[in-house]
Design brief:
There is one protein chain. This protein has 145 residues and is mostly helical. It has one domain. The chain has seven helices and two strands, in the order H-H-H-H-E-H-H-H-E. Helix 3 runs antiparallel to helix 5. The longest helix has 23 residues. It is elongated and about 75 Å long. It starts with a helix and ends with a strand. It is a multi-pass membrane protein. InterPro entries: Pra-immunoreactive, RDD, UCP021697.
Length: 145
């Protein structure tokens, strides 16, 4: 015989006990302030700054060639994120790329992240912690400084 407990489980909705309350909680990061996950607004503004800077360089040296803009952007991301952990836009917006264990991302992570960032689709697909596929692939996070 069907008991009320049997149908009560679907009436009460899904189990939400293991869903994190804020982005980065599952990674052990604070909810806000220094060391918290960088939110979409800061990321988008940083991306626009980096893209605009790449565009200005391409206008000055390559007659605004779209391929040059993309190449300059990719090189900036590879070198600066791979070595320093942040691009010019990241620095202005107060965010930084780190590996999951808290160390610097490394040059390989900078290269892979830049290639995937230029493809755009991996950046759009994010998880509950606001990590895009490019971050998940290289086990990196973008945090507030």
């Amino acid at each position: 015989m069907v008991d009320r407990k049997d149908i009560g489980s679907w009436l009460s909705g899904p189990d939400t006990s293991n869903i994190s309350k804020y982005p980065g909680e599952r990674l052990g990061l604070p909810e806000s302030g220094r060391g918290s996950m960088a939110r979409a607004g800061r990321r988008i503004v940083a991306l626009c700054i980096d893209w605009g800077l790449s565009h200005l360089i391409a206008i000055a040296f390559f007659n605004a060639d779209p391929t040059a803009i993309l190449a300059i952007f990719a090189i900036e991301q590879m070198l600066l994120v791979g070595t320093l952990g942040y691009s010019v836009g990241h620095r202005i917006m107060g965010i930084q790329v780190m590996s999951i264990d808290g160390g610097p991302p490394g040059l390989l992570a900078g290269v892979v992240r830049a290639v995937l960032l230029c493809l755009l689709i991996p950046v759009i697909i994010t998880d509950a912690d606001h990590r895009g596929l490019h971050d998940k692939a290289m086990k990196t996070i973008l945090v507030r400084r």
